[in-house]
Amino acid sequence: MAGGSLKLSAVEIKPDERKSENDLFIHSTIFVVVDKQARLRGVFETGGEGVNWQTEKQRILAAVKQLEREP
User: What is the C-alpha separation between 42 and 40, in angstroms, rounded?
Assistant: First the structure.
């Protein structure tokens, strides 16, 4: 779903190009919330210029909590 429908991707960094042992992928800074019916319920920018991570984190948690309350 991430690649086929949402067009989000991750590309492996070649071992000889990694800056640390945790530097495994180049990936989008977009985080999405999808419900049980596979419907997109939220899109959140998690990195980059002008993004306040603490604010976005609270918005993501609120979206997830909303889904937890739904049948």
Answer: 6
Report CA-CA distances (Å) from 71 to 17, 47, 60, 66: 46, 32, 19, 10
pLDDT at residue 4 above 80? no
Q: What dihedral do alpha carbons 32, 34, 40, 41 form, nearest 10°? A: -80
In this structure, the number of other CB atoms found within 10 A of the CB of residue 48 comes to: 8
Place of tokens 């991707």: 9
**23-48 pLDDT per residue, tens:** 999 988 899 999 999 999 999 999 99
- Token pair recorded at residue 22: 């945790």
CA distance 5 to 28: 15
CB 57 within 8 A of CB 47: no
Which residue's structure tokens are 């070649």? 14
